[in-house]
Amino acid sequence: MADSDSIRIQANLETVRATLAAAAARAQRDPEEITLVAVSKTWPAEWVRFAVDAGQRVFGENKVQEGEAKAPLLPSFLDWHHIGNLQKNKVRKALAVFSTIHGVDSLELARQIDRVAAEEGLEPSVYLQVNLAREASKHGFTDEQLRQDLEALLGLSRLRIQGLMIIPPFTEDAEAARPMFAALRALRDELIDRFGVPLPGLSMGMSHDYPIAIEEGATLVRVGSAIFGSRG
Ligand SMILES: *Cc1c(COP(=O)(O)O)cnc(C)c1O
What we know:
Strand order of the largest sheet: 7-6-5-4-3-2-1-8
Bound molecules: pyridoxal-5'-phosphate
Low-confidence stretches: none
Radius of gyration: 17 Å
Number of strands: 8
CATH superfamily: Alanine racemase
Shape: globular
Number of helices: 9
Distance between the termini: 19 Å
CATH architecture: Alpha-Beta Barrel
Largest sheet: 8 strands, parallel
């Protein structure tokens, strides 16, 4: 069924791009400033290739091993992002595959990435994950921790700190996430003011809520099932 998978994935990608552009237009934003990360976790490299054929270049995986397995099967010009929880003992392997790490959730993990990046001669991009809802089940800095730790984080010279990332509590009603997205943007703006640093990036929005995240300022959305289908 490769043909029908290819047609379906390419049609889904077109829909997602159009939806992204419409959301950007509603917010009077340039769609070019929003990066679509196609989250290919659980799906085969062949399906990634269908998306590549449709012009997609940035892909997200949440498991280091899966990225390690898939990336060599695909063109080397692709840009791989690690989007989930990253264990400290997997940092070296992660940096070999991923240009960008989205789930930097502690100063300790950031220090480990900085250390390994120095040894490997790399300068990875990172997003600092914030747990604004303070959910016990989720990773991330609280806003308070981030205010405390940002100075130390900014001292890690190998890290290109792009901005903040959030995975809001899941709700059926995507509108319920809007206040979280707005709060992440407000925190970002506050940190820019206080620390005088560029923190342009907001990694927020998934398949069910990315248009809302874009309306609230997302610069990067992580979209999986709306492109590749439900993971079941
Ligand atoms: C799986 C995942 C996504 C994509 O989720 P979809 O609902 O399939 O779009 C985005 N971000 C993270 C961190 C994920 O783990």
